Amino acid sequence: MIRRRSTPWIHRWSRQLIGAIATVGALLTAYLTVLKFTGGSAACSSEAAGGASSCDVVLNSAYAEVFGLPLPLFGCLAYIGMATFALLPLAVKLDKNKALRSQLEAQTWLLLFAIATAMTIFSGYLMYVLANILQAVCWYCIGSAIFSLSLLVLTVIGRRWEDIGQLFFIAIIVAMVTLISTLGVYANVEGPREPGERITIESPSGQAQSGIGWEITSKSGESEIELAVHLTEIGANKYGAYWCPHCHEQKQLFGKEAFSKINYIECDPQGKNAQPQVCRDAGVKSYPNWTINGELIEGVKTLDELADLSGYEGPRDFKYSLR
After folding, report:
1. Of 120, 123, 158, 309, which residue is least crowded by CB atoms under 10 Å?
2. How is domain 9-185 classified at the CATH fold level?
């Protein structure tokens, strides 16, 4: 008597598990997509400099958009695709249409593997960006990366693959295409500069975060930091309002680290650590303003202008410029 080999439990439940994880991932990325479109702030326990959550630092960075659309939107579509391909064959009753069920299972497994591989490679790149470039903690991003890796593992162990060589071949092709495409998409995000070349800062988009404004996404260089320290040492003050787009442009010229060293005074009573009376005493009537060496200076100033006005004698390899 021939005993039939029992089917491992992971093979019986792999599609349900993939569908469940993908559904949670779709809800997570849908939430982030809505925040990106509405300009809302993500609920996050990690705080970044300036009072905004480090999740917002990531969501408002240049890496959070692809072709002008929120990156979480593409993640949401990928998760929806995974959930659809995982659960679609289960909708066909095995006892009524076994041939169609078997055909759908065979075709969708390769699609699941290819999509999960691409998602894992892309998530790996984003984890590198998170740790080494943005240097921020985003639990949503980390959670999504874990989901992607889990989906890949489940597609590999969730069935008995007859041709392992084909699997490796698909993985290599998908990984190469994903990596090359990813590097191409982000090639111009603060890429290498020619000597003397500066990056043009963009005007803020979306709604300013209440009381805080838009997150500073530019990265400071040595020159920006030294100028900021110099301005603080000579008693210079920068006046602004959290909702002021030109004030944000001034912050972007310095970059996140350098601007944290500037003596910034918030003039709007609704802003964080607001000092409206100090602004009135200084004669501030519009934003942004500076007081340098006792003189009130109006408007956004390039870092070269601030260096000249303040008598700064340090390096001037500034990274950013206005439009």
Report:
1. 309
2. de novo design (two linked rop proteins) (1.20.1440)
CATH number for 199-321: choose from 3.40.30.10, 3.40.190.10, 3.30.565.10, 3.90.79.10.
Answer: 3.40.30.10
pLDDT per residue over 5-52, tens digit each? 677 888 888 999 999 999 999 999 999 999 888 766 777 755 544 444
Nearest to 202 by CA among 42, 40, 61, 32: 61
pLDDT of residue 51: 41
Measured from the Cβ of residue 183, the count of other Cβ atoms closer than 10 Å reads: 10
Q: Which of 12-16, 98-102, 168-172, 244-248 is least confident?
A: 98-102
Q: Are 293 and 234 in contact (CB under 8 A)?
A: yes
Domain segments of the chain as ranges: 9-185, 199-321
Residue 226 near residue 220, CB atoms below 8 Å: no
Annotate 218-268 with DSSP letters as a single string.
PPP-HHHHHHHHHHHHTT-EEEE-TT-HHHHHHHHHH-HHHHTTS-EEE-S
Label residue 206 by pLDDT band (50, 70, 90): confident
Residue 173 has pLDDT above 50, yes or no: yes
SS3 118: helix
Other C-beta atoms within 10 Å of 199: how many?
A: 17
CA proximity to 218, closest of 139, 306, 322: 322
Residue 167, number of CB atoms within 10 A of its CB: 17
End-to-end CA distance of the chain: 82
Give the integer Cα–Cα distance in Å for 212 and 210.
6
Banded pLDDT at 134 (limits 50, 70, 90): confident
pTM for this entry: 0.60
